[in-house]
Amino acid sequence: MGNPMKIRASAKDGVTEIKVLMSHEMETGQRKDASGTVIPAWFINEVTAKLDGKTVMQAQWGPSISKNPYLAFKVKGGKAGDKVSVTWVDSKGDTRTDEATVT
Amino acid sequence: MDRVSVGIAAFLAVSAAVATAAYAQQKDAAQEGIEAYREALQDGNPAELFELSGEELWKTPAGPKKDSLEKCDLGLGPGVVKGAYAQLPRYFADTDRVQDLESRLLTCMETLQGKDPKPYVEASFTAPPKEEMIALAAYVSGQSKDDPITVKPKHPKEQAMYDLGKRMFYYQGGPYDFACATCHGQEGTRIRLQDLPYIPGQKGAAAGWGSWPAYRVSSGQMWSMQWRLNDCFRQQRFPEPVYTSDATIALSMYMAANASGETMKTPGIKR
Amino acid sequence: MTQAAMERRQVLTFLGALAAAGFVVPRVALANWDKTAFDAKTMDDALKAFGAGAPADSGDVQIIASDIAENGAVVPVQAVSKLPKTERIAILVEKNPNMLAAAFDIGPDTIPEVTARIKMGQTSNVMVLVKADGKFYATAKEIKVTLGGCGG
């Protein structure tokens, strides 16, 4: 399930800017814990963003995306009041979707 | 001095000047790079994720009394969060104590929610009870972002706290014969690429005080001011201070009062 | 079978194997995650997995990042393509254990400018690879890391 994302979306001059912060460990699989055991890789590997129901961004990530990932991008169109939804899926098959309204 | 020596001396002087200039230029490029890096981090501070969870903790009924923290008095009256952090630490009549944010949160959790503060005080900074405190601190501090720091010791207990904080700042001891002032008592110094804020001055105090709680990118952790101070004690090889003890509040009071008039930039983001 | 279908089957087989071993419960099938590309240990292999071969250097591909990262755990990178019909943008780090950090599918309405934050184990070239109108273009920039970001 994970913790909520922080999504900000604002429309200006026919362009909507979407900024997303996600709460995730993004464990690389390269680190060891105190007892010397390798901490298994665990990271978000797919992100999908929709603006007003239409997919506008699909990202595939590896473990070298930073912990608590940040993603920012711009889309043509969109206006205040439109819905933005962002979904991530991680390498354990866990998933989370959050929504925000364009301002 | 013969002509050859004069020539060599002049050559050496010129070389030294060129080398110094080259060094300065190189240093400036590195400094500029670091500044660009810090600037790029500002947009999308993961501390916002902690503010979100802190806000939920603030508003959700919990504890034996099944109440939220929404009526908590952080110094500006019950329920006023906006701007409260920029005016802490301060004297609270109900507890007859000078309190920083985290000690005041414990008071509210005890009085409003009926929670026992002990597990919150004793837990390590990475354990769940402290995670709650840190998230709450992130949320409350975010509600003072861009507000002027306004901490002017007036009450005798505030003045006493400030004086104690100042003494502690300069107090030298421990196996390394260290003080806070060893790192933060001179202007214009740094460790590796990190500038060391000069805490006795207004700007330096604000650079420290005004940017905590902060998200640390190195560890991917959110740190509260209490955690940061605890780490100062560790770095000095001093005994670990008790969470929200007067020793920690005194140092906070010293920093906050020195920083008064500058701007709150909380929650911050650090390397 | 098409290439995409094969890759999809490989990914599903991989997840199936993990699920059988009790590692994961695949609640959502990963249609696009390209395991071959993300597992690549050399730049050549990573580019091959993308079908990129030797991408052309292009001034229309930009990488906006500071010259120095104070901490390799978080290195902000903006990848920009000025090329028409940009379909895909990828960020690769030459000296990371796995080159590929991220790939972004750009829709017709998406402006080909993405900002992400990557981990870097050490000072390295960072490459932005762009697929536009079926062809590949790239640009690279060295980012100095004063403290590595993979050791924890």
TrEMBL record, chain A:
Return the protein name. Answer: Sulfur compound chelating protein SoxZ
Looking at the record, the residues that make up the Sulphur oxidation protein SoxZ domain are 8-100
Classification via Gene3D superfamilies: Immunoglobulins
Species this chain originates from? Azospirillum oryzae
> Which Pfam families does this UniProt record tie to the protein?
SoxZ
- Look up the domain of life of the source: Bacteria
Query: Lineage of this protein's species?
Result: Bacteria, Pseudomonadati, Pseudomonadota, Alphaproteobacteria, Rhodospirillales
UniProtKB/TrEMBL annotation, chain B:
Residues annotated for substrate binding in this entry: R228
Query: Where, subcellularly, is it found?
Result: Periplasm
An annotated GO cellular component = periplasmic space
Q: How does it assemble?
A: Heterodimer of SoxA and SoxX.
The EC number(s) this enzyme carries: 2.8.5.2
**Co-factor: note:** Binds 2 heme groups per subunit.
Required cofactor names: heme
Q: What is this protein called?
A: SoxAX cytochrome complex subunit A
Binding-site list for heme c 2: C180, C183, H184, C232
Which BP terms in the Gene Ontology apply to this protein? sulfur oxidation
Q: Keywords, A to Z?
A: Electron transport, Heme, Iron, Metal-binding, Periplasm, Signal, Transferase, Transport
Family label = Belongs to the SoxA family.
Its chief place of residence is periplasm
What class does this enzyme belong to in the EC scheme? transferase
Decide whether keyword Acyltransferase is in the record: no
**Per the record, what are the reactions this protein catalyses?**
L-cysteinyl-[SoxY protein] + thiosulfate + 2 Fe(III)-[cytochrome c] = S-sulfosulfanyl-L-cysteinyl-[SoxY protein] + 2 Fe(II)-[cytochrome c] + 2 H(+); S-sulfanyl-L-cysteinyl-[SoxY protein] + thiosulfate + 2 Fe(III)-[cytochrome c] = S-(2-sulfodisulfanyl)-L-cysteinyl-[SoxY protein] + 2 Fe(II)-[cytochrome c] + 2 H(+)
Q: Where is the signal peptide?
A: 1-24
Query: What GO molecular function terms would the record report?
Result: electron transfer activity; heme binding; metal ion binding; oxidoreductase activity, acting on a sulfur group of donors, cytochrome as acceptor; transferase activity
**Domain Cytochrome c: residue ranges:** 54-149
Binding residues for heme c 1:
C72, C108
**Location of the active site:** C232
Automatic annotation (TrEMBL), chain C:
Q: Under which name does UniProt file this protein?
A: Thiosulfate-binding protein SoxY
Record NCBIfam families: SoxY_true_GGCGG
| Residue stretches making up the Ig-like SoxY domain | 48-150
